[in-house]
Write a structure and sequence with these properties.
globular, alpha/beta, single chain, 8-stranded parallel barrel, TIM Barrel
Length: 289
């Protein structure tokens, strides 16, 4: 159910920072039309740290209602407070999300025992498929392989989104976790190699602007056509890099606005893309044949 190109969806906003629900729904339609295989609402790319509880529940509910079962909806419900993560995960379940994505707690830097207990508490509290999310460059906290192995045995934890870019992790883990545990890349720059090693998909920033090509890459590799997937991905290499020319989601929101798909809104402390990068981003997008 959770495989292929899963978009790390931006949260469209108006110039005053308010949620733009019209363009939110339009983006969901855009992704379904372009064969995106799933959507993550309110992950890092969705500016989850600046979205309040009411907005969070509202956006997940809207995504579930608008998509209406056509593709899976994964809600980002991680937090550095276990109590808050449980609340958001329960809320996502109540409004019908198919799964939850749980980033490692940020800033407070728990040790591995603390991470295990954090995830176990959420697992025990809410009966919904849960995907671990490890992105130490953003959180200051690394979920070690040994802890992933232990967590994989819990009933509701079904997989991991690995944004470390360290391919040896999947090599080490894939034979040590439960059989149905899934591996999803969280790094557009290395996702193809990750999938070759046993990953089932990618939660992608690039898919916001090139959903059709990201779907085709994933579909090709899942069907064993590595050559085709590499040929398509080579077209996107410059765009993958440009998506992180400044902190995500600054570049992707700017490009979506440039393409006329969303308004220019973004919430502080993030600001619009520096003008010196505009040409780079446009050229990276236009270089795709």
């Amino acid at each position: 159910m959770f495989q292929g190109s899963i978009v790390a969806l931006v949260t469209p906003m108006n110039s005053d920072g308010s949620v733009d629900i019209g363009n939110f729904r339009s983006l969901l339609d855009f992704h379904i039309e372009n064969k995106t295989d799933g959507v993550v609402v309110l992950g890092t790319t969705g500016e989850c740290p600046t979205v309040d509880f009411d907005e969070h529940t509202f956006l997940v509910k809207e995504a579930v209602s608008h998509i209406n079962g056509r593709i899976p909806v994964i809600a980002g419900t991680g937090a550095n407070s276990t109590k808050e993560a449980v609340f958001l995960t329960q809320s996502a379940k109540e409004v019908g999300a198919d799964a939850c994505l749980l980033v490692t707690p940020y800033y407070n830097k728990p040790n591995q025992q603390g991470l295990f207990e954090h995830y176990k508490a959420i697992n025990d509290a809410v009966n919904i498929p849960q995907i671990l999310y490890n992105v130490p460059l953003r959180t200051g906290c690394d979920l070690k392989n040994e802890t992933v192995i232990l967590l994989s045995q819990l009933s509701n934890i079904i997989g991991i989104k690995d944004a470390t870019g360290e391919l040896e992790r999947i090599d080490f883990l894939k034979d040590k976790v439960k059989n149905n545990f899934i591996f999803i890349s969280g790094d557009d720059l290395s996702f193809l190699d990750y999938m070759e090693r046993g990953g089932c998909g990618v939660i992608s920033v690039t898919a916001n602007v090139k959903p059709d090509l990201m779907h085709n890459i994933c579909n090709s590799i899942l069907n064993g056509d590595i050559k085709k997937s590499k040929n398509i991905n080579n077209q996107l290499s410059s765009l993958h890099e440009a998506m992180f020319i400044e902190s995500n989601p600054i570049p992707v929101k700017w490009l979506l606005n440039y393409l006329g798909l969303i308004n220019e809104g973004i919430r502080l402390p993030l600001v619009e893309l520096d003008k010196k990068y505009h040409t780079n981003l446009i050229e990276a997008f236009k270089s795709i044949k």
